[in-house]
Amino acid sequence: MADMSATARDFAAQPLPSWRRAVLKVGSSLLAGFEGGGLDPRYAAGLARFIESARERQREVVLVSSGAVAAGRGRIAAGGDGLVLRQALASLGQASLIAFWQQLSSVPVAQVLLTHDDLRNRRRYLNARASLRELLRLGALPVINENDTVAVDELKLGDNDNLAAAVASLVDADLLLIATDIGGLYSGHPQRDPNARPIERVAAVTPELLLAASGGAGALGTGGMRTKLEAAAKAATAGVATALFCGRDDDVVEALALDTLHGTLVSAQNDRLRARKQWLRHAPASGGLRIDAGAANALRVRGASLLPGGVVAVEGEFRRGDVVELRVAEGGEAVGRGLVQYNSAELGRIKGRHSRDIEAVLGFRYGESVVHRDDLVMLGGRAADPHAVDSDGNEPASGPATDEVSQ
Predict the structure, then answer these.
(1) Do the Cβ atoms of 386 and 400 come closer than 8 Å?
(2) For residue 14, what is the enclosing H or E element?
(3) pTM of the shown model
């Protein structure tokens, strides 16, 4: 990068935090075409290449993409900007938005429409979480957008920024990447304040910092830098760091693929995995599962998920999403605790069965695992951590761990 761009010169290079799964949010200001509406691939193509590079390194990316309204304007002539009109345009544009990303992707693209109600409702939250996990396992690229057609209260300034932060927590991401149309956070508006200086690292998002955030709502976007900082603050409390960068700058986007950030890094406030494991360790259990020795060994040694074939008996009554204790069938040793993906009655019917039999027995399937490894904490021993890094911060050479346990 000998002749680096102005943005890359303003924001000195800094390493990205180690990550295996990231959420990338792309706003409509990077996607929208000119006055006639529609979508323009000139900036999206570079971001798609970054996603492809991440996949080649055995990393996973979930894309939160705006642009449905802009895509809708490209399909039908409509004046005005009222809420109902925007909802209609979003409905018209969703298919075009997914087709747009599919043209730039070498893998299948999956559309996922969410509202904040989906993330507040326990059952919907678990369903969305299971679906996204399955899409990633299948090697697809999930493209998430607000369900603007029905989200009357949620279609507000900067909503997709906040949605991206919620999704980062939903999918247990290690990093939130927010592509903007400026270099990152400045001490003032860089185009209006000659004394504005780039801010490369933020330890915590404070009220004072929010007041100093540059930018406002753009003509094509739904949020400025303030809403991006609000999203970063939410991600930070969930233990996810946020990188703000210019998605219009090829040099900056290409550097991301080399784990180098020219932009603003907002630090995580907690260790995500540690905080989650701590909660699982101490949360009251609603019931228990007796598992065979083979399953217990797979959990301990390989960090695998618990599949129904390893379940010998179900103890107590519990609902999907409750914390259950895992005990070895012979001897009763407690080996772990986790969030269960099926309720006690359903588990009573599928215990001991192969994962492929779940749908045939129940008539539906939430996923192949009874307790997913991301929702599991081991007791009295350490399981292999699929998100672990070595002492130098490098990823395991073998790539993501498998969920398979012999049945």
Answers:
(1) yes
(2) strand 14-15
(3) 0.76
